[in-house]
Structure formats: C-alpha cells, structure tokens
Automatic annotation (TrEMBL):
InterPro entries: SWEET_rpt (IPR004316). This is MtN3 and saliva related transmembrane protein. Pfam families: MtN3_slv. GO terms for cellular component: membrane. It comes from the Archaea. Keywords: Membrane, Transmembrane, Transmembrane helix. It comes from uncultured crenarchaeote.
Amino acid sequence: MTEYVIFLIGISATVFSLWSTVPQISKSLKTKKTDDVSKWLIISLIVGLSLWVIYGIMKGDIVIASANAIGVTLNLILFGLKIKYTVQK
C-alpha cells in the first residue's frame, strides 16, 4: 500500500471513531440530561485515548497523536456535561 492510502485509512478511522462522541454531546446539550451516559465509560475512554496520544507522540505519528487528542478533548467535554447535568439523588 502507498503512504497515501495508509494516511487515508488513518484519517477515515479518525473520523468514524470521533464522530461517535459528537451525537452524545449534542444530545446532552439539547436535553440537559446525561443520566444515561456512564461516567466510567467516559473516564476509560479519556485514559485510553490519552495513552494513544502518548504512543503517537513517542512513535512520531501525527495522525495517531492528533486524532486521539481530539478524542480526549471531545470526551472531556462530554465528561464536563456529565458532571454539570447529572441529577443528584
């Protein structure tokens, strides 16, 4: 495979992976409810994606590092919404 094809696969993987968080953020902002979102899932994703960022930096792979940095950012936003909108019982 050419470097261009490999790059396109990486970018495509990034788009599909990150797009999964956007609808949840949008829904949370519209409904102001996050009771159905697991805080442990978000925390797990933040930790895992952060490790991918470190890995990407160490390997010198800008696609891995930047894609996962965006994922960390989106999940931090979702976690902030989770904290803000969770109903205290």
